[in-house]
Amino acid sequence: MKRTWMILFMVCITVSSLFAAPRVYKLKMATTWGPTLSPLIDAAQNMAQLAEELSQGQLKIQIDTANKHKAPLGILDMVKGGQYDLGHTASYYWKGKDINTLPFTSMPFGLTAPEQYAWFYHGGGLELMQKVYARHNVLSFPGGSTGVQMGGWFRKEINSLDDLQGLKMRIPGFAGEIMARLGVQVTNIAPGELYMALETNAIDALEWVGPSMDIKMGFHKIAPFYYTGWHEPASEMQFLINQRVYKKLPEHLQKVLIAAIRLAAYDMYIQNYDMNAEAWQEMKKEYPNIKVETFSKPIMDAMKKANQDLVREMTSKNPLLKEVLDSQKAYIKKVREWSMMSDYLYLKDNLQ
Amino acid sequence: MKRTWMILFMVCITVSSLFAAPRVYKLKMATTWGPTLSPLIDAAQNMAQLAEELSQGQLKIQIDTANKHKAPLGILDMVKGGQYDLGHTASYYWKGKDINTLPFTSMPFGLTAPEQYAWFYHGGGLELMQKVYARHNVLSFPGGSTGVQMGGWFRKEINSLDDLQGLKMRIPGFAGEIMARLGVQVTNIAPGELYMALETNAIDALEWVGPSMDIKMGFHKIAPFYYTGWHEPASEMQFLINQRVYKKLPEHLQKVLIAAIRLAAYDMYIQNYDMNAEAWQEMKKEYPNIKVETFSKPIMDAMKKANQDLVREMTSKNPLLKEVLDSQKAYIKKVREWSMMSDYLYLKDNLQ
């Protein structure tokens, strides 16, 4: 009998240890951003904290910012290769590698933030994003919207298409290609050198993000014309997850991770809305002569045409990209009328 | 020795049972809505499901809809009294009981959905809501936004203030008080009788919600003038929690509950954005002669003046209500310029 009780005790200890100490999953996440780049880094930190709290410590996500891994534009490769389990970044950084990833950040003249979230979660957008990223063995989820990005800071007023001819502007990516078709001399310059380049007239204009992130750069001190947005109406960041890592997680922790991601994304959109409002008030107070302008109709029409041409060229030989862009286009057609009837007409009558 | 092993076994069984079977908390939630009232009931169900999934079954929230408890407008009392642990409802239903609860749903000419979430989470709104609800021993959280609610369905076009004189309109609550000051004969009619009342000219107009919820009511078939919104630019639902129940939950489950609530609220905003877009397309297709109109400037100005007068009267003897409304007003002053620079000007140039 002594032996029986002893065995029972041993069995009990073994079995209970399985329950008493749930396995902790330590994951590593690489971000495109440095440790102080609000609100982008906040979204990554918020997600990691939510995942840990909601899983009662079973998910521990260590964040390596760009300062650590030194490869801000290598996130997709590092998550794909398993060097990192997760990433926080923006989809359009991979357009050189895989053009199909482009439309999941934002497209010129595309969806606004609520429209785009509605497309992701109710209009087939998320499924299309998974289809594109499955080719890289990576899962991809919306990771926070900046809302409308501004059209950029210009030292001189832009009244006509002529004013754009030969204008030296830092505007990377797809928007830069459009500007180039309008005669702009598009350049790329490292962020740390942008202010000096603008001040010394090495460039005449530049595009950055919006008030919340522009304010620290100080462009408003030397380029008083702030043009409204057209090229990134709702830039959505992305959380990437290595597919094998995801599959190995217990179902419960998969659900926690997905919920933490969805919540952190929405949270960033709202946080940045507040930060933009606050930063704009500060800028304006300090530099009351900043002029908010919209590009004239001829310029906008030329941008729209260049955008359509570029999209047509890109999609002609790429059915998957066409599928994604057609889906966005169809969704805009459905949703935009509602945006105009609701938010647009409400705001129109309630200028403060 | 036999006794020792036996005791050790008993201790092991007892201790391990604490870990092996985490306590399940069964909570009951009452909703103002019936079981099919999308998207409102969906937000309640989504929250309950998230809470259960994220807590690995430790939180089980049973939902009683209005069909069961028969007290759609008794949610605050039932949660306060402990009959229910949680509620899903709208704050402005309690304005008769406690006027301070009014502004947390939406105010005429107030904040839009992203502006209001930014106010709740970054502008002190949530703290003010807790301050108001603490008097009822209840915690209150944002529970899903309908976005802009439409101004209502009218059988005849409204061109001037004269057209409003004696007009019989179903428009309850604070907006109804404003309309009454403009000469409208304000009535309240049970939802089930509204269509008939409109069809038989017992009323000339009515306010409901927006396309997603109006479509089932069929008003568009008999009242072709659909006026844009002014009175509820972003009606936010609320999740209520009995304070004692909340305090008894382990900290981990409190965090799960709060996260599930925040996520379900955002999710509803996006779901309803999609539903509105879809429903509007359907309505318009079936009844292409529906006319979307905005009230003329003289009417809007009169509404704004009546709103200001009413707010002044309500706040003159109520410092807490004044504190809440002043906070919203200050936040609009800060945030609205950004809304105009970003979403408004973007949409203006991108009519589809």
Automatic annotation (TrEMBL), chains A, B:
PANTHER family: EXTRACYTOPLASMIC SOLUTE RECEPTOR PROTEIN, PTHR33376. InterPro entries: DctP_fam, SBP_TakP-like, TRAP_DctP_sf. It comes from Candidatus Marinarcus aquaticus. Keywords: Metal-binding, Signal. Residues 1-20 form the signal peptide. The keyword Electron transport does not apply. GO terms for biological process: transmembrane transport. GO terms for cellular component: tripartite ATP-independent periplasmic transporter complex. This is ABC transporter substrate-binding protein. Na(+) binds at residue 208. GO terms for molecular function: metal ion binding. Transmembrane segments: none annotated. Substrate binds at residues 149, 170, 207, 232. It holds the Pfam family DctP.
